[in-house]
Amino acid sequence: MLGAGVVLGAAAVVVGPSAAWAAEPPVREAVSEAGLAAARGLFAAGAYGRLAGLLPLLLAGAELEVRQGPAGAVRAARVWVLASQLAVKQGRTDAAGVYAGWAGTAARRSGEALVLAAAARAGATPLRRTGRADEALTLLQEARAHLTSGPRPTAAEIDAAGMTALTAAYTAAQAHRPALAEEFTDDAEQTALRLARHPRTAARPWELSAGQCVLYRIGIHRRLGDTDAALAHARRLDPEALPTAERRARAATDTARALLDAGDAAGAFAQLRLVELAAPGEARRPSVRALTAEVAAARPGLAGLDAYARRTAPAANTAAR
Predict the structure, then answer these.
(1) Residue 197 has what pLDDT?
(2) What mean pLDDT do residues 117-130 have?
(3) pLDDT confidence of residue 317
(4) Largest CA distance in the chain
(5) Three-point CA angle 241, 211, 34, nearest 5°
(6) Is 145 in a helix, a strand, or coil?
(7) Residue 253 is inside which H or E element, if any?
(8) What's the CA gap between 8 and 103, in Å, rounded?
(9) Strand partners for 204
(10) Average pLDDT of the segment spanning 224-249
(11) For the chain, what is the radius of gyration of the CA atoms?
(12) Do 165 and 135 form a contact (C-beta atoms < 8 A)?
């Protein structure tokens, strides 16, 4: 299970996480559920600078937790998944792969299908960014099969299976496999309908929804070169239906990219403003800063763009994170 995670984990021998988090060894304490929930809340809000400040304590705790049996392995895996996700946001693909590899190893030790799926989704991003989309697809398909192998999957497993299918669909699109991308997206949409029949409360929100599926379709069709379809889905999407600020910012970012592909730099800039409005930390990400530069190159002198670029430039003390 999750064999590609072993490859990612092996990369830790050669490529370690950024030294930016290793200046002073933090005190090692167990990872609390409250602390992990707070960290995940910061990620969902796009507060990446604050999360980077909290993460060293969680990483130190994960090193202790992973030795404490299956329950500890679950907590350690969740920390390393979060660390991998943050590294992706920061443009640190090598570190993201290392953390995802550690998460995969801990997830296998835990035996928990939900944790295996989270580790697989984290591992898929650095794999596809380094030209290994087929390995990412294998990883995701194995994780999804594990989630759905039982006779009666729980609502949480259905939720995770649908999100894993969406990640697989985007990965297939990046690998230029349109039929497979469509198959996974259709599967995710059917899973979202199935999940909608389960009770949902504020204490247990589902990540998968019809809105998530539409959001992914924007990026999937853009990756497949169908800008018109990507923009059609962008027009369908109600960003307020998305569950977090990070997701709303992602919707605006993907729409901005599609608009720029269509030659509408002014429209792309309008979407970049929405990125900042949803989550200022997203607007400061390296990839979004690069998109801002592309818009500026396409439409020099666009009103408000220079001020936006200055405003979203990373602060000097956080640029290396």
Answers:
(1) 86
(2) 97
(3) 43
(4) 60
(5) 65
(6) helix
(7) helix 245-261
(8) 10
(9) 201
(10) 96
(11) 19
(12) no
Contact 213, 167 (CB under 8 A): no
- Predicted confidence at residue 19, as pLDDT, reads 39
End-to-end CA distance of the chain: 32
Place of tokens 């909290």: 54
Q: Dihedral angle at the C-alpha atoms of 240, 246, 252, 255, nearest 10 degrees?
A: -110
Nearest to 5 by CA among 99, 112, 110, 134: 99
Are the CB atoms for 72 and 79 separated by under 8 Å? no
**Phi-psi region at 254: left, alpha or beta (left = phi > 0; alpha = psi -120 to 50):** alpha
**How many angstroms separate the CA atoms of 181 and 164, rounded?**
12
pLDDT in tens, 19-74: 334 445 555 567 888 889 999 999 999 999 999 999 999 999 999 898 888 999 99
- For residue 173, count other CB atoms closer than 10 A to its CB: 27
Q: What CATH fold (topology level) applies to the domain 1-147?
A: 1.25.40
- Give the CA distances from residue 266 to residues 230, 251, 304, in Å, rounded to whole numbers and listed in that order: 17, 17, 11
Identify the DSSP state of 153.
-
